[in-house]
Amino acid sequence: MTQADTRLNSTWDLDRKHFMHPWTFFDSFKQDGSLVISSAEGCYVTDASGKKYFDGLAGLWCVNIGYGREEMVEAIAEQTRKLPFFNPFVDTTNEPAAQLAGKLAELAPGSLNHVFYSGGGSTANDTAYRLIQFYQRVRGKPEKRHIITRHESYHGSTFLAASLSGKVGDKVPEFGFLEDGLHKISCPDPYRRPANMTLEAFGDFLIDEFEQKVLELGAENVAAFFAEPVMGSGGVMLAPEGYLARIYALCQKYDILFVADEVVTAFGRVGHWFASKDMFGVQPDIINCAKGITSGYIPLGATIFSDEIYDVISAPGHDRYFPHGFTYSGHPVACAAALKNIEIIERESLCEHVREIGQYLNEQLATLLDLEIVGDVRGVGFMCCVENVADKESKALFPDEVNIAKRIADACEENGLIVRPVGHLNIISPPLTMTCDQVDLLIGSLRKAIITTTDVLRQEGLLEARAPAHV
Q1: Quick one: 202 and 324 in the same domain?
Q2: Do 162 and 177 contact (CB within 8 A), yes or no?
Q3: Domain limits at 360?
Q4: Are 59 and 87 members of one domain?
C-alpha cells in the first residue's frame, strides 16, 4: 500500500468515526463512509484517489466563480495578514465590511441600503425574522407577528430557520419546531398541480389561498411573507407566471413585509445579481443572501433591508438598540473575499454568461424527458432539477426505500459527475463558468446514469419489463 493510500484510508476512517455530517443517514454512512474530496480546479473536483469529477453542484449552490481562483486566495491572504479579525459590536468596524455594505447597497434593488452580516443563509434568515419582529413592535404594531411561508420551502437549518422552512422530509419527529405564529401555504409546483387544472387557474388558486390565509389570520396580525424567488432544495420550483408579483401586490395592500430569500438565487445563479426585481418585478423589503456572495471561499451571510425599516427602528430620541448579532458579523476576511468575488463576477460578465449558457443548459436538460423514469425537468439559469417518477402518466413516485435519486447520483459519480440527490429529485447547480461543451458532458453523463439506473430497477422487478434503453 502506498503512502497516499494509507493517508486516504486514515482520512476516510477518521471521518467515518468522528465527523458527523449534515443530513447524515447513519446506517449507510457507517457502512460506506464519505467520498473524500482533496482538490479542485475550475468546474472540477478531485477525490483523494485521484479521480476527477465535474461538479454539478458548485459545492452546494455556491462556488459561482469556480475553484482555484488565485486572486481570491491572494485577497483572503492579504486581508488575513492585515487584519484577520476584530469584533464588530456596537461602534467598531473594519474597511472590508463597510466597503462591502456599500457595494451590496449599490447592487440591491430600490431602497435596500442597509446590511446586517451573519455567517450564512440560516442566520441571515434568523436575522430577518428578529428584525421584522423588532420593526413591527417599534412602529407600534406588536400584534403583527405572524409569518407566512410555503410548503417545501427551505430557509435554513438553525431552529428558527428550520421552523420557517416547509420541506416535509426535514420535519423529522425527533426534532421540535417553532409553530406559534408560523403558517404554511401551498408549494407553487406546476408539475404537481391538481389534475385537470390549467396553469392559469393554478396561479389564481395560489394567489387566492395566500389572501385567504391573510384574512383568516387578520391582516393586522401578519408581519411578513418569506419566499425563495425560485425554490431551491425543495425542487427548483418555478411558480406560474406573475405569481410573485401578485403576492407582492397583496403584501403591499395588507401592509405585510416581503422577504426574498436569495441565498441561492443571488450573485448570478439565475443570471442576475438578485432575482426578485430583475426576474419577477418584485421590490422586497428584505433580501437574505449567502453562498454565492463569496462563492463559498469563506462563509458569509447578509440581510439587506430597506431605508423604510431602518428609519423606523433607528429613529432618534428613544435610546433604542438592536441586541442581536454574531461574533463573526462583518468578518474582515469574509468581506474581503466577497468584494473580490463580486469584482470577478462583474469583470467576467458572469450574469450575462449564465443567461446565455443557461438557456442552452435548460434546452439540453429537456431532452431527458424521453427517458422512462423522468417525469419532469425544470430550471432557470444554472439552477435545474430532474424529477424521477415510477409512472409518467400518473406521476406516481417510487417508494422511499428505492432511494431513486441517490441511485442516480451514485451512477453519475461512476461517470465522473456529481449531482445532488433529494428524495426523488436530482438537482443541478454548476459553477457559473460552465461552457456549452461542459453542458454536453453534464447532460450526457446524467442521461447515461439514468438509463443505467432504469435497467437495474427493471432487473429488480421495480419497473415493468420492457426493452432496455440505450445510451
Answers
A1: yes
A2: yes
A3: 35-65+349-459
A4: no
Residues 25 and 406: beta-carbon distance below 8 Å: no
Residues 51 and 123 in one domain: no
Round to whole Å and give the CA distance between 389 and 81: 53
**CA 388 – CA 424 distance, rounded (Å):** 6
308 and 198 inside one domain: yes
Residues 243 and 338 in one domain: yes
Nearest-angstrom CA–CA distance, 312 and 125: 20
What cell does 463 get?
419497473
466, 425, 31, 448: which is closest to 232 by C-alpha?
A: 425
Are 324 and 312 a contacting pair, CB within 8 Å?
Answer: no
CA angle 427, 55, 20 (to 5 degrees): 75
Assess whether 381 and 302 both reside in one domain.
Answer: no
CA-nearest of 329, 306, 330 to 135 is 306
Are the C-beta atoms of 390 and 463 separated by less than 8 Å?
yes
CA distance 262 to 277: 11
Is the confidence at residue 1, as pLDDT, over 80? no
7, part of any domain: no
CA distance linking residue 361 with residue 436, whole number of Å: 8
What radius of gyration, in Å, describes the C-alpha atoms of the chain? Answer: 23
Q: Which residues are CB-neighbours of 438 under 8 A, at least 6 positions away?
A: 43, 54, 430
Residue 471's pLDDT is what? 45
Cβ proximity of 118 and 301 under 8 Å:
yes
Residue 417: inside a domain, yes or no?
Answer: yes
- For residues 362 and 380, the answer to whether their CB atoms sit within 8 Å is yes
Cα–Cα dist 410/63, whole Å: 22
Whether residue 2 is contained in a domain is answered as no
Judged by average pLDDT, the poorest of 51-55, 167-171, 204-208, 290-294 is 167-171
Residue 11 lies inside a defined structural domain of this protein: no
Claim to verify: residue 39 and residue 147 sit in the same structural domain: no
Per-residue pLDDT reduced to its tens digit, 384-437: 999 999 999 999 999 999 999 999 999 999 999 999 999 999 999 999 999 999
